[in-house]
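Dear colleague,

Thank you for sharing your sequence with our group. We've completed the structure prediction you requested, and as agreed, I am returning the results in plain text so they can be pasted directly into your records. Please verify that the sequence below matches your submission; if there's any discrepancy, let me know and we will rerun it promptly.
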Amino acid sequence: MAITAAMVKELRERTGAGMMECKKSLVETDGDIEAAIELMRKTGLAKADKKAGRIASEGKVVVEFSADNKKGVMLEVNCETDFVAMGDEFGDFASAVAKRILADDPADVATLLELSLTDGSESINIILKTMIAKIGENMSVRRFMTFETEGELGAYLHGTKIGVVVDMKDGNQELIKDVAMHVAASNPKGLDESSLDATELAKEKEIAAAEAANSGKPENIIEKIVAGKIKRFIKDNTLVGQPFVKNPDITVEQLVKDAGATILGFTRLEVGEGIEKKNEDFAAEVMAQIGG
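Please find the predicted structure tokens below.
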């Protein structure tokens, strides 16, 4: 059967695939558009599986809240390049996934991937693999956090790479955003002393004690030095103890207290943290390809 330009055009519009791939699929299926679509899906999923081992450390953070700001979700979706991360298709996909999490509250990423992206659509996993085949980059829904509060949730997004959700009681959205912005910039280790990692705190005390012991000062002075260093460590690394980025003359604790509010918690998420990024030497790669 002769493959016409109109047939190729229709297949392109329905699949989003390239012209040559559409023509090839139509030739293999003797002009049957439905069969061509099925063939392209099968070969596309195979291509997606082959890309699964490639490092995807770029991407974006998406935040979604319920209308009353009592429930929320923060999601990280990854790809290989910033170019794809900034594209509308990738962004629309990430937003739709966040909305699905908020609606269905899946237990984990594996459960999430089996859900329909939108009501009546194919699963998130199938749509993700179709995007991988079409765009040519590995992508993943890496992680998400869900929130529920008796207070009020709010967020700050620093571009698309850093997201912060703050849970506050008796505050307002402007104050919550200011605190979230501070968290994005200062990256505190915890809300207050009680939320710091006990092992890390003990190690800091050990280091401070060892440094003070080498000073040759009396034991009672050494104890005061250690106590002072630990107090400083706690102040520097807790949200409530840090100077507020927009007004360093006051702490975040004082800012919130003056407003009659209380910070119940916060979560900061940064794209690609913990992923070992590929260090590419493009000059060496080109030389290797030409046998230099």
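Summary note from our side: The chain has three domains: 5-53, 54-148, 193-253.

Kind regards,
the structure core
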